[in-house]
Amino acid sequence: xxxIVSLLFILPFIVAAQTENDSAAIKHFSNEILLHGKGxxxxxxxxxxxxxxxxxxPQMVQAEQWGFGVMKAAGADTVFxxxxxxxxxxxxxxxxxxxxxxxxxxxxxVLALGNSNGSGENGVTAKVLExxxxxxxxxxxEEAKGKIVFYNCDFDETNIFTFESYGQSVKxxxxxxxxxxxxGAVGVIVRSMSHATDNNPHTGWMGYNDSFPKIPAVxxxxxxxxxxxxxxxxxxxxxxxxxxxxxMLPDTIGHNVVAEIKGTQNKxxxxxxxxxxxxxxxxxxxxxxxxxxxxxxxxxxxxxxxxYHPKHTIRFVLFANEENGTRGGKEYARLAVENKEKxxxxxxxxxxxxxxxxxxxxxxxxxxxxxxxxxxxxAPYGCTDFLHDGRGTDINPLYTAFKIxxxxxxxxxxxxxxxxxxxxxxxxxxxxRELHLGAVNMAAFIYLVDKYGL
Amino acid sequence: xxxIVSLLFILPFIVAAQTENDSAAIKHFSNEILLHGKGxxxxxxxxxxxxxxxxxxPQMVQAEQWGFGVMKAAGADTVFxxxxxxxxxxxxxxxxxxxxxxxxxxxxxVLALGNSNGSGENGVTAKVLExxxxxxxxxxxEEAKGKIVFYNCDFDETNIFTFESYGQSVKxxxxxxxxxxxxGAVGVIVRSMSHATDNNPHTGWMGYNDSFPKIPAVxxxxxxxxxxxxxxxxxxxxxxxxxxxxxMLPDTIGHNVVAEIKGTQNKxxxxxxxxxxxxxxxxxxxxxxxxxxxxxxxxxxxxxxxxYHPKHTIRFVLFANEENGTRGGKEYARLAVENKEKxxxxxxxxxxxxxxxxxxxxxxxxxxxxxxxxxxxxAPYGCTDFLHDGRGTDINPLYTAFKIxxxxxxxxxxxxxxxxxxxxxxxxxxxxRELHLGAVNMAAFIYLVDKYGL
Lengths: 454, 454
Prior knowledge:
The structure is a homodimer.
Chain A: H1 2-36, H2 39-50, H3 58-73, E1 78-90, E2 96-100, E3 105-108, E4 110-112, E5 124-131, H4 134-139, E6 148-151, H5 162-181, E7 187-191, E8 217-220, H6 222-234, E9 239-243, E10 247-261, E11 266-276, H7 286-305, E12 312-319, H8 327-338, E13 342-348, E14 356-362, H9 365-378, E15 385-388, H10 396-402, E16 405-411, H11 416-419, H12 432-452
Parallel strand pairs in A: 5-6, 6-7, 7-8, 11-12, 11-13, 13-16, 14-15
Antiparallel strand pairs in A: 1-10, 2-3, 2-9, 4-8, 5-9, 10-12, 14-16
Helix pairs in contact in A: 1-7, 1-12, 2-7, 7-12, 8-10, 9-12
């Protein structure tokens, strides 16, 4: 009895001391990253020197070699590449579209969707069927034949977390072409997945259903969306011409680039941290996902610089081909299964380099109890939002294979869809402190997971 | 007994229903502002059409007239101006500085501090004493005579809330000139209050102690700070020339611009919402404090558009002359006392137009208990940080006079000191959703204070 009383007496002190140690450790990571972080400099190299780096492009190869070199220089215990087949889509030319009114031809700012087939040099010229959503198209399917379907779909501005709007509307970009082709449409124009105040179109992944003709598909900037809508309101029989040149070439070879810091106690158990190295071809991929790459590399650097010795082996992964194939993430999980690796946790950063607001987490009740006890440790660094069931595209296959706890960094989302997949996703739109503060929170989270499990 | 049991039984349901109503009301404000907000458009007019609007400038007058017109158009019950004397400082010319090495003259990017006296056309040329802080200057005071003191003071990068770094270091900008003049210095160069990655100098308020000579004072961009530091390390006897032309002219007339929505129950009790209309002369004053003005106007618009009838009379105030005199805020409080007005609460937005993170609040224990019960209502809109003892410069005189509860909106602070008082504080650096989301949270806070008191 006496023993129990003593334990009950000292337990709060142990917990308090623990929290104090953890708080000091996290402050240590924070000071290192905010004072000496190189993530921003690396992001500059990746975005300005290499630039857009779609799977299969020469820049993809350059980026892989660059990442390998940075990881070596940052002092990783090992660095290696995982080869994987990646799709090789090329844009093939300058995407164009024109509204043909009776008196003039009005150019529209458009971008072909990634993976879409081009119209070729003769283009596609047809009348336009404007619809708000799939339901309207289904109802008016008889009208679609021989026309260009214009998805003037909503991108809800009232959601505070903008990824919700993206989740609601991205189906028109991903599946809109085949949905329209099923009814005989000859092309589609999709509202950009954005609420930006500029006129940049936003490209992104699309996929064809092999049962229907593979018709051209473009995204349109929001100002020209209004131009098109207004002209259609005046004359529903006007024609639009689309010129795109997209082509899917045979698969080629890409690589995940992987570094490790070996664990001190559970060497054969892996914690994975990563982002994706590829980007769309039309921009520098600064927020998407240069930021995640820079943060992943910065964690490696900071951990080594601080001589931090994790219990588990930590893998830092620059994933290949997230944008138009997810082949890197799938190959990483396939190899993990094949090699009978033991994975315990994975963290991804692929939602931009803006100020961190929290994490989206997939874990069980016990895990959530731990998260609750960590909240006060993360709040001083800006992470106060803890969402459920998030993980991220590249670590999702690992979750499917192992059902481990996973998480994704949640940066502030207000600006993200202004620049996502548009020409404006460039280095200048990333802020150094915001980027590095994301890395601080990732380091803190990894430190806690390594120490206490999740 | 039965009665008490019944009350205890139904109380949670009453509270839950209340919360549900409040939650719905706030969602109503949010949708109105995010879908139909005009704050961003008004900010564009104020910053691009009018521009920098320092007290005493023609743009100050234009801005007052513009604000009056917008308030009228937004449907305020009354709009009026409060005249006040404002200081009239003019920059007078292009601020310049040069490092004079043996082989060349290196230009430095500098800006005279606001309210400082110019060197005149002959400039000030002298050797330089570089110090880290006042303590070092005090220790080396014998060396200061006849020299330009260079405050290479710290701007702590490890603080997560960047206003802490500002609070720690701004004394060198505000009081550095007289502190150096006391020891016979002939000019001062102050590190810009920033951690930006560019080279823009950041101006801002300074004040002279009348007991000492009023020597020229400039802020220096961070890249040129390194140039100066490195050259001094090579040759401590090198000279620097400063050329500034600042001049304080006689006081002139400015105005607070005030609109009201009359209260339905406590008509003679005032809730004040405001920002400041003036800005520095070298930029558009977009974040500082065009954002606060746009949000204040947007609240007025949204409240009228939604036909919201507050219990108290709400005052929307565009304060005059915050930057180099705080005369508007002082006059507002003076008139409130003179007119025996009853004030119950004031809210200011003057920390930038970035994503809202919370509020800094001055209230008592009862007030904090209310704040605690409101946290779950504000969290969905991004406000999760509730700091103590904040109010804001323009409503501080009202606090001094009435000791009422006050608050200030706390936007994300990571980018703020990159642009604060520099040429880069322009419209393009404000994001529409972030600005409007700040207004959403201000509207929610005002709604709760009007309904429940604080």
